[in-house]
Amino acid sequence: MPVSLRAGLRLCCLVLLATVAACGGEPATKKSDDRTEGWSVDKLYQEARKATLDGGYVEAIDLYEKLEARYPYGAYAQQALIDVAYSYYKNGDAELSIEAADRFMRLYPLHPNVEYAYYLKGLVHFRREVSILEKWLPQNIAARDVSNARLAFDDFGQLLRSFPDSRYAPDARQRMVYLRNQMAEQDILVARYYMTRGAYLAVANRARHVVETYPRSQFTPEALELMVTAYRILGLNSQAGDALRVLNLNYPSHPATERAGKLAVLQ
Question: Could you tell me the residue range of the domain that residue 143 belongs to?
Fold first, then answer.
């Protein structure tokens, strides 16, 4: 074989071997970008917990979700689910927080942290309610949506009914007082508007709703006063008298009782 031909074949073989070697060695030299690869379940949880305590909620969420995906069973997975719900809440991801809390309650209904899941859902809706209230102020808040207030009130109420001795119960009760007053005020504002429009039956119905639904709110006396006024105007003296008696019995020194009493005298 001529020298030039042998040299050419040798060169081709060297190029082919180099190509095969390069292709075969590439996966071995490529490293994963996931720093958590190979971490134990304990390592994942501790790092996620540390991120949560440091306020790194995005990192915490990522680590909790990886823990759930890699180790879906056991105590760590259960705790990670409620912890990621909290991290979502702190990160402002309301829907994801509620979804995680609901999933936790559905999967682990007997878990000791179920009471916290109810409390957390209440906090999520409560935060939304306060944010909406701040958005409307100082505008007329009679037009605002109180659906989040009702949801928060229901969540805290469920917590108190199911776990009356929960460590979260005192705070839940205080928040329910605030929410009760907010929802009652909403109805009172609407009743006042109806009064200016001369819709007296609507006034009476809305005020009665306050008395029946939020009986311990700070707006109950005014609701009763509105009932007395509306019923008097409508000529429903028996109903007006009943509302006035409730006022006198429960709020004898309240200004609303005095005003309603003067109205009865004028009638």
Answer: 112-190
Residue 169 has pLDDT above 90, yes or no: yes
CA distance 220 to 249: 13
Residue 5 counted as domain residue: no
**Does 204 lie in the same domain as 260?**
yes
pTM (predicted TM-score)? 0.76
SS3 label, residue 98: helix
CA–CA distances in Å: residue 131 to residues 87, 113, 127, 148, 149: 19, 27, 6, 10, 11
Q: Report the CATH number that the domain containing residue 84 is assigned in CATH.
A: 1.25.40.10
68-103 confidence digits (pLDDT tens)? 999 999 999 999 999 999 999 999 999 999 999 999
Angle at 103 between CA 98 and CA 108, to 5 degrees: 130
Mapped onto helix, strand or coil, the DSSP state of residue 2 is coil
